[in-house]
Amino acid sequence: MTLPQAATVVDELDRHGHMIVPDLLSREEVAAAKAELGTILESTPFGRNDFEGDHTRRVYALFAKTRLFDGPATHPLVLAVLDHFLGYYQLSAPTGIEIGPGETAQPLHPDDGVYPVPRPHREMVINVMLPLDDFTEANGATRIVPGSHRWGEERPGPETPTVAAEMAAGSALIYLGTLWHGGGANRTDRPRLGVVLHYAASWLRPQENHLLAVPREIVRDLPERMQELLGYNICPPFIGYVDGRHPRRALD
Questions:
Q1: Residue 1 has pLDDT above 70, yes or no
Q2: Which SUPFAM superfamilies match (predicted)?
């Protein structure tokens, strides 16, 4: 299937706050990623609270543990959408997420809510959810509050309607950080696995400190664009310098 043009995705995000792009990953890429994350998850604990999920395992420091998402993180379509909304940006909280059987629905939230900036505001966060299993309403597909990216200080209540972002493995759900959403309840007898690539404007502090999470000996061997996305970059005019120099010099 031919991927949509970036302008089409941008238009859908402006109107609806989200868009599902089929077949961003090939079947081979999905299978390899699922197998490697499966190995990592064997030593990954379950969540510590309702937000992380008592029956959910989360792979943090993702880019210290696998190279299989370097390609998706720098996919030309993804970067073109990020260029439009954020201009200068970096990875913030990329995470592998396995929602297990019996997990309850995650509280609804916008992913830019961690930043104390009054709404409405310009977009500061963009997310790309990559399902490695088919996402269905029954197994915990991400729930979305339609139109909530346009809200000011409104908050969803118990009766607020949501839509399940059902999609096949290998698709990508691209959505704005202002969109209210949450992981769904898994009412099946099998876990569902996905990865969220969470990006933030580079003038913000990322949620995860990749400069500490990803060892320098790993970063030195990565392509320059991945190094930049992990924080070895400048937000013009000079936010992020090290001893007056570009942070990538610190890798020498």
A1: no
A2: Clavaminate synthase-like
Hey, what domains does the chain have and what are their CATH numbers?
Answer: 6-201 (2.60.120.620)
> How many Cβ atoms from other residues are within 10 Å of residue 117's Cβ?
12
Contact 9, 19 (CB under 8 A): yes
Please tell me the distance from the alpha carbon of residue 145 to that of residue 138, in angstroms, as a whole number.
17
Sign (positive or negative) of CA dihedral 128, 132, 133, 138: negative
pLDDT tens profile 194-235: 999 999 999 999 999 999 999 999 999 999 999 999 999 999
> Is 185 buried (19+), middle (13-18) or exposed (0-12) by CB count in 10 A?
buried
Per-residue pLDDT, averaged over 107-113, amounts to 96
